[in-house]
Design a protein that fits this description.
Elements (H helix, E strand, L loop, with lengths): L4 E5 L3 H12 L3 E5 L11 E3 L3 H8 L3 H6 L6 E5 L5 E6 L13 E3 H9 L3
Parallel strand pairs: 1-2
Antiparallel strand pairs: 3-6, 4-5
Bound molecules: flavin-adenine dinucleotide (FAD).
């Protein structure tokens, strides 16, 4: 019996991760992407909770950790630079503004698409 086929529209973060797991499950998977080259735009992505489990199951946790934005946290300051509030990196994977594995969208897309 031939493999069932799946077409994924968009090979960004979600599309590439889906393609990985569907291929591993035995589907013939094709992901289509309109731009001719990797889209480099996007903000930072927090890898925590379920996202950390996913990159770990993809065997990419170490690679992702090596490419993080090395963010120290977030601080609100007044016009003199005095710190009014601070939100340090949350290394326990909680719901702070920043976590220890913050990676720029394009970096994560490159890792998923293996186009270093
Ligand atoms: C304003 C902003 C705020 C953000 N905030 C957060 C945040 O709070 N937390 C966080 O973790 N991340 C955040 N991000 C980061 C990150 O961009 C997303 O989490 C992540 O990229 C979502 O993955 P995705 O696969 O859904 O979308 P994308 O990575 O954008 O992938 C979608 C893909 O579909 C493709 N596509 C578009 N149109 C078509 C079409 N017609 N046919 C086929 N393919 C198509 C695109 O080219 C793209 O590659 C933010 C990004 C922005 C811009």
């Amino acid at each position: 019996m031939s493999k069932p086929s799946v077409l994924i529209s968009g090979a960004g973060i979600a599309g590439s991760a889906c393609a990985f797991f569907l291929s591993r499950a035995g589907f013939h998977t094709t992901a289509v992407e309109p731009p001719p080259e990797l889209r480099k735009s996007g903000q930072q992505i927090d890898i925590r909770g379920a996202a950390l489990q996913i990159v770990s199951r993809m065997g990419l946790e170490e690679t992702v950790r090596s490419k993080t934005a090395k963010e120290a946290g977030l601080a609100f300051v007044d016009t003199n630079g005095k710190r009014l509030a601070e939100f340090p990196v949350d290394e326990k994977g909680g719901m702070s503004f920043t976590c220890d594995i913050e990676i720029v969208r394009a970096e994560l897309a490159k890792i998923f698409l293996r186009c270093e």
